[in-house]
Each structure stands twice: as structure tokens, then as C-alpha cells.
Write a structure and sequence with these properties.
CATH class of the largest domain: Alpha Beta
CATH superfamily of the largest domain: Mur-like, catalytic domain
CATH topology of the largest domain: UDP-N-acetylmuramoyl-L-alanine:D-glutamate ligase
Oligomer: single chain
Distance between the termini: 57 Å
Number of strands: 20
Strand content: 15-25%
Length: about 450
């Protein structure tokens, strides 16, 4: 879609909205930034730009006359797609894009796109490292830190862009067409946004919507929903599994990751050669290997890169050992399934720090995963009472309630024995107490350092 001299409404004045505005101005569009918060001022938005950019603003209510003037609406990921004013744009037949669709409209080269409830950031970073080691021009974008819209105009015909994509971003794709896609897993998350599990599953699978049989989709064989969906995916499906030996695909056999295609097996690596902790990371590695193979990256480059790759910040990140107690930062564990994987990755008695913003999750399976490994659960945030009630109902009563993360670190340290691990893995979002999971993880690391 040609956007020169078009009127575009960018909804949201955060990082995504700012990046979208910069791209739109570079391609000659007239931009109006809209925020439903009437208390926002234009100067507040201008401060977020690192360059001079001209745009109009609407704060608070938006009129039908203002809406009728727009040729395109670009929604930030945090804006629900079922809001009344968004539905009004639909009745006007105004195109509604998200940042992924906007960036894709101007990007060149091939796209490798990764989604899933958990593991996206690690898999994206690893896949990006593999692509960078082989291709002359590669980019890593999305939730991992750099908006796709920031990089779109830098891409070339021979570029490979590795994109981490959330369910929120997938709600607003139309023509987006990855050469290779991956859906790592689907477990309940963001149901306050998607309303039903069926909606959430369909949104995740929509990453394959525009793929063809010449493209590839990497799926987790152990995820029943993905196995069921595979027959309706238009791309060539490649499975990976950490529990089953597959006739074709990538799988774990004892301590080795195996690739089996056309009846031939190849050992990718021994898990003891890896720097990543936990069975879930073996799945992330298999997904990355599958994507790299479908992008024709030589196997020696794939093997070398996965063996050298270290954990992503805030995902079961080792922080320090103080008085023979290890501290791990898993602030990216923003839902129960991610938090379960973090507990499973621990190899010593563990004190878990959990709780945060309520995304209407269920915590039974998380508590059940504690077994004999988790000695205490230290809780804070909006969900602490809900989680405590669930834990006690399930027979886990070693619970300490606190008000702040600093207090949680201090209380956990008092409870720890030599040889224990203290794991921040909240099973909840950070909103309400922190800007994002990164800030929560950074504060945790700061409080740990203050113990010295």
C-alpha cells in the first residue's frame, strides 16, 4: 500500500507508536498520534523521539469527523482490537494494521517469524545469532527489543529478518508472509485480552495464514493443539519434540539432539555441550535448528552457534552466588507455564519468588510442579492472595507474603540454606508494580547485588 500523502492515525504513544510514526514520516505520510488518555500532552510524546518529527495529536475522545479523515489506522500491540472506536473504523472500511503489517509493507528480503506462549525471546535471539553468522544482512526485531518498524527500511533483497511476534501483534496482520514460521507452544495466556482459549489458539496459528507449500512451519509435536492444527497449515510442517522420537523432524534421544530427514539422522549436539539450562531450552534449540535448516544455513554454522549461545537476560538468568546461595532471574516468566519450566530447570532446593499482575491465569499446575524441590514460596503483587489460596488448597503451606520485591529478596535470603537457589519466576505480568518484566528483573538483580 502506497502511503505517501495519506492520512494515518497511529493509536498509542509508546515505543511501538513512536517507531511506527518515524517509519510513516519517512515514507511521506501525514501522521496523527491518538491516545485515549486525555491527560497526555504533545510535549510528553515529543520527548520520546530521538529526532525531529512532525505530527498531529488527538488525546481523549476522537470524533467521527476526525475518524472519517483517516486513510489508515495503525494500532500499537497494547491496544485491544475490539474497542468501540476500532469497530467504528471497521464500519467505515478503514484499513487497520499493526506494527508488523506496517513494517512488512516496506521491508525487503525474507522473514523468519517466531511465536508461541513461551520461549519466543530465547528462540528468536538464538535464531538471529545463527542467521547473523551466515547471512551478510540480517536483523532481529520484535518484542526482543527493536521494533520491526525501526528496521524495515534498512532491509535489502538479500536480507533475513528474524521477528519475535506476540499474539497481540498477530491480531492485525493481513499480508504478512514469513518464509519460515515457528509456533513453539500454546498454553493459556492473555485470556483477559483474547477472552477464550480458542481465540488465542487461532490468533497464534494465523502466523501461517499467508504461507504456501514452498514455505516451512516449525511446530512442537508435544503440543496437542499444534498437532491438530498441522493438517490445516499451508506450509511444509516440521515437528520437533523433547519427549518422542519422530519419524522425521528434530528430537531428543537421551542426551543428544537429533535431526532426522529423508531417513538420515544427524547428531546436532550433546546437551552437555550447551550453555542453556532446562528441557524447555532444548525445545527452543530444536526450533531454531529447524528454522536455520529451512533457510539453508550450513550445519557446521548451526552447530557452532548453538553451542556458544548463552541464556537471554531475564530468562532463567544466573545472577550471582552469595554465601553459597544461587540467585536466578526469571522475570520473563510471566505466566504459569513459563514459571513451571524455570522450576524444572533448577537442580537444588529452591525458594521461589512469585506473584504480580493478574492475567486471569490458573496456578494449580505451577504449584503442582514444586514437588519436593521448592522449599518456600514468597509472594507479592495483585495475585499473591489468589496464589496463596491455591497453594494452601493443594497442601503447600510454606508461604511468605511481602509487599515489595526488595522485601521478597531479603526474606528469601533469610529462608535459604547453603546450597539452595532463589528463583524470581513470578508466573504473572509485571504491570502495576513495574513498567515491564525487564525493569522487574533489573531491580531483582540490583537487590541481589545489595546483599553483598
Amino acid at each position: 500500500m502506497e502511503l505517501k500523502d495519506k492520512q494515518v492515525l497511529v493509536v498509542g504513544s509508546g515505543l511501538s507508536g513512536v517507531a511506527a510514526t518515524k517509519l510513516l514520516k519517512k515514507v511521506g505520510a501525514f501522521v496523527t498520534i491518538y491516545d485515549s488518555n486525555a491527560n497526555v500532552e504533545k510535549d510528553d510524546v515529543l520527548k520520546k523521539f530521538d529526532e525531529k518529527v512532525e505530527f498531529d495529536t488527538i488525546f481523549g475522545e476522537i470524533s467521527k469527523e476526525q475518524m472519517a479523515n483517516m486513510d489508515l489506522v495503525v494500532l500499537s500491540p497494547g491496544v485491544p482490537t475490539d474497542l468501540p472506536f476500532v469497530n467504528e473504523f471497521r464500519t467505515m472500511n478503514t484499513p487497520i494494521w499493526g506494527e508488523i503489517e506496517l513494517a512488512y509493507n516496506f521491508a525487503k528480503g525474507k522473514v523468519v517469524a517466531i511465536t508461541g506462549t513461551n520461549g519466543k525471546t530465547t528462540t528468536t535471539a538464538l535464531t538471529g545469532s545463527i542467521m547473523e553468522a551466515h547471512f551478510a544482512s540480517s536483523f532481529v526485531v520484535g518484542n526482543i527489543g527493536t521494533p520491526y518498524t525501526d528496521m524495515a527500511l534498512q532491509t535489502k533483497e538479500d536480507s533475513v529478518t528474524v521477528a519475535e511476534i506476540s499474539s497481540f501483534q498477530l491480531e492485525t496482520i493481513h499480508e504478512f508472509h514469513p518464509k519460515v514460521s515457528a509456533i513453539l507452544n500454546i498454553t493459556p495466556d492473555h485470556l483477559n485480552r483474547h477472552h477464550t482459549m480458542e481465540n488465542y489458539i487461532n490468533t497464534k496459528i494465523s502466523i501461517t495464514r499467508n504461507q504456501t507449500e514452498e514455505d516451512a512451519c516449525i511446530l512442537n509435536y508435544e503440543d496437542e493443539e499444534l498437532r491438530k492444527a498441522a493438517k490445516n497449515i499451508p506450509a511444509k510442517v516440521i515437528f520437533f519434540s523433547s519427549k518422542s522420537e519422530l519419524e522425521e523432524g528434530l528430537f531428543l534421544r537421551k542426551d543428544e539432539i537429533i535431526a532426522k530427514f529423508d531417513g538420515k539422522e544427524e547428531v546436532i549436539c550433546n546437551i552437555h555441550e550447551l550453555k542453556l539450562l532446562g528441557a524447555h531450552n532444548y525445545e527452543n534449540i530444536m526450533a531454531a535448528v529447524g528454522m536455520a535448516m529451512k533457510m539453508d544455513v550450513p550445519m557446521d554454522i548451526i552447530k557452532k552457534t548453538i553451542k556458544e549461545f548463552k541464556a537471554v537476560e531475564h530468562r532463567i538468568e544466573y545472577v550471582d552466588t552469595i554465601n553459597d546461595v544461587k540467585y536466578y532471574n526469571d522475570s520473563k516468566g510471566t505466566n504459569p507455564d513459563a514459571a513451571i519450566k524455570a522450576v524444572q530447570a533448577m537442580i537444588t532446593p529452591t525458594i521461589v519468588i512469585g506473584g504480580g499482575y493478574d492475567k486471569e491465569s490458573s496456578y494449580e499446575e505451577w504449584i503442582a510442579s514444586f514437588g519436593d524441590k521448592v522449599r518456600y514460596l514468597v509472594l507479592l503483587g495483585q495475585t499473591k492472595d489468589k496464589i496463596a489460596k491455591t497453594a494452601k488448597k493443594m497442601g503447600f503451606s510454606n508461604i511468605v507474603m511481602v509487599e515489595t520485591l526488595k522485601e521478597a529478596v531479603e526474606e528469601s535470603t533469610k529462608l535459604a540454606n547453603k546450597g539452595d537457589s532463589i528463583l524470581l519466576s513470578p508466573a504473572c505480568a509485571s504491570w502495576g508494580m513495574f513498567k515491564n518484566f525487564e525493569e522487574r528483573g533489573d531491580m531483582f538483580k540490583q537487590y541481589v547485588n545489595e546483599l553483598k
